[in-house]
Amino acid sequence: MNGRDSFKRCRVCGKPIGIITFGVYRKVLVDAEAVDVVPDPHGEEFVRIDGSKIRGVEAEPGTLQTEPAYRPHRKTCGVDE
After folding, report:
1. Domain boundaries along the sequence of the chain
2. pLDDT over 50 (residue 81)
3. Residue 37, exposed/middle/buried by CB under 10 A (0-12, 13-18, 19+)?
């Protein structure tokens, strides 16, 4: 997360979340914990530190060719949109 980004608590579920800012007036809410991701075109959607999106699966410990990414918070909040 860069200097403009921050960590807060979700107003709905109370879990810690991160706010990634990218572009002009663009923000993405993500879970506060980053996970290692292996790229996979059929996997889940994750958000990189720079705000770009990646499809992948969470890596097993010790897996090579991983990159850190965040899970979008809307997927884990437990509130229907």
Report:
1. 6-75
2. no
3. buried
User: Nearest CA to 36 among 7, 71, 73?
Assistant: 71
| Residue owning tokens 């879970």 | 31
Q: Are 57 and 64 in contact (CB under 8 A)?
A: no
For the stretch 36-73, pLDDT in tens is 999 999 999 999 988 899 999 998 888 888 899 999 98
- One-letter-per-residue 3-state SS of 58-79: ECCCCCCCCEEEECEHHHCCCC
The C-alpha atoms of residue 31 and residue 76 are separated, in whole angstroms, by: 8
Residue 1 gets which letter from DSSP?
-
